[in-house]
């Protein structure tokens, strides 16, 4: 396992260096960008190495996988982010385990999140997932629907809306992803103007292994990276 940890550490360092270089190119402080290590490709044995490798914010796309790993690993350094679709019947078990729900993708889900948050006495951090490219296979609010939510985010108290999340169009290269990222940032700016300080929406979660540098140039504050951290690491 030592060799694997060494390799994983090198990958984390390399990705952080690329994040810092991309931030520098556009005059942004690298510290304002959070690296979320996406661990969905590997099991608990590999996932548990991430904090020692220098990555403590971890993303899982399936709630059951997140539950299983959070229980098995039980490392207080880890902050779990849910980055995939959350079914209603999984909300109550997921909420107490996560630092952030990045994938709030419908008004009905927000209603249920609110109900459970009140019951549990928690104020979860939430990102609104936007289907910025209009891909019918993707989850997320249509941009127009998300824009219309801005003025009534208060209605979902105690949810704390910290920003927006998106995935660029599936087949796109980094440069066509740029248009999607820029569109998400513009949408966020419009929403911010409308929500009159009730939510600060400062976070933009966009960019994955193939396009995170472009996303940073377009304003990403959270990048979600899986494959680039796992180069040369055995996937269980
Ligand atoms: C899998 C996944 C990622 C990471 O993708 P990589 O290309 O492996 O970096 C990021 N975000 C979401 C929502 C994912 O499901």
Give a quick rundown of the structure.
With 236 residues, the chain is an alpha/beta fold. It is 41% helix and 15% strand.
How are the elements arranged and paired?
Layout (H helix, E strand, L loop, with lengths): L1 H24 L8 E5 L5 H4 L2 H4 L3 E4 L2 H11 L5 E4 L8 H4 L5 E5 L2 H14 L4 E5 L13 H7 L10 E6 L8 H22 L7 E3 L6 H6 L4 E4 L11
Parallel strand pairs: 1-2, 1-8, 2-3, 3-4, 4-5, 5-6, 6-7
The structure holds pyridoxal-5'-phosphate (PLP).
Binned strand content: 15-25%
Please, how many helices?
9
What is the CATH architecture assignment? Alpha-Beta Barrel
Bound small molecules, deduplicated: pyridoxal-5'-phosphate
- What count of domains describes the coordinates? 1
Unreliable sequence segments:
none
Please trace the helix and strand order, writing H or E for each element: HEHHEHEHEHEHEHEHE
- Based on DSSP secondary structure assignment, what is the total number of beta strands? 8
> In order across it, which strands form the biggest sheet?
7-6-5-4-3-2-1-8
CATH topology: TIM Barrel
The portion of residues assigned to helices is 40-55%
Mean pLDDT: 95
């Amino acid at each position: 396992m030592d060799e694997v940890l060494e390799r994983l550490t090198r990958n984390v360092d390399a990705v952080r260096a690329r994040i810092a270089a991309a931030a520098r190119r556009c005059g942004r402080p690298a510290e304002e960008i959070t690296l979320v290590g996406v661990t969905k490709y590997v099991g608990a044995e590999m996932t548990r190495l991430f904090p020692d490798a220098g990555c403590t914010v971890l993303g899982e796309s399936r709630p059951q996988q997140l539950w299983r790993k959070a229980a098995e690993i039980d490392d207080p350094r880890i902050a779990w982010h849910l980055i995939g679709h959350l079914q209603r019947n999984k909300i109550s078990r997921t909420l107490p385990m996560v630092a952030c729900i990045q994938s709030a993708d419908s008004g009905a889900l927000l209603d249920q999140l609110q109900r459970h948050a009140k019951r549990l006495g928690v104020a979860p951090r939430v990102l609104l997932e936007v289907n910025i490219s209009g891909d019918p296979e993707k989850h997320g609010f249509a941009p127009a629907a998300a824009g219309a939510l801005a003025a009534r985010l208060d209605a979902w108290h105690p949810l704390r809306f910290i920003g927006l999340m998106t995935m660029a169009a599936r087949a796109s290269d980094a440069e066509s992803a740029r248009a999607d990222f820029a569109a998400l940032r513009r949408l966020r700016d419009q929403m911010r103007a409308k929500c009159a300080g009730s939510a600060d929406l400062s976070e933009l979660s966009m960019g994955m292994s193939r396009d995170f540098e472009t996303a940073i140039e377009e304003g990403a504050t959270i990048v979600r990276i899986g494959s680039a951290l796992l180069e040369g690491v055995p996937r269980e």
